[in-house]
Write a structure and sequence with these properties.
Blueprint (H helix, E strand, L loop, with lengths): L58 H67 L2
Length: 127
């Protein structure tokens, strides 16, 4: 169960209701050593988890939080797109490499067999 417990339909706020937020007095103060430096990494939650917007966050802290989320999303999208684009290209390159390697190997083997046969014929003629 949640810490707030179940609410009856009469006590659930509607979209048009004004809901009171905690006072500034309850927010951590600048004298609090944990929050004295402003924004710290402990304020960062998991990237895809919803974050409560606290009334004590400054505009700069909120901007940093949004930028961090945006950077994470951009990195994920970039990785996905690169995989989508590079996978077929790399597959074709690997296929061409295998095909060319086989052709080169076959050519080399033919040359080796021709030389071996020529040497063997030369040796038999010399007898």
């Amino acid at each position: 169960m949640s810490q707030f417990g179940p609410q009856s339909p009469q006590t659930v706020p509607t979209l048009t209701e004004v809901v009171d937020w905690p006072d500034q007095a309850q927010a951590p103060s600048a004298a609090d050593p944990q929050h004295a430096g402003g924004f710290d990494e402990s304020m960062m939650l998991q990237p895809n988890m919803p974050r409560p917007v606290a009334s004590f966050l400054s505009e700069e802290q909120l901007s940093q939080r949004v930028l961090a989320d945006l950077q994470h999303q951009v990195e994920l999208m970039l990785e996905v797109r690169l995989r989508e684009v590079l996978t077929p290209l790399l597959q074709r390159a690997a296929d061409n490499l295998v095909r060319e390697s086989r052709a080169e190997l076959a050519s080399t083997l033919r040359e080796i067999v021709v030389r071996a046969v020529a040497q063997e014929l030369a040796r038999h003629r010399g007898r």
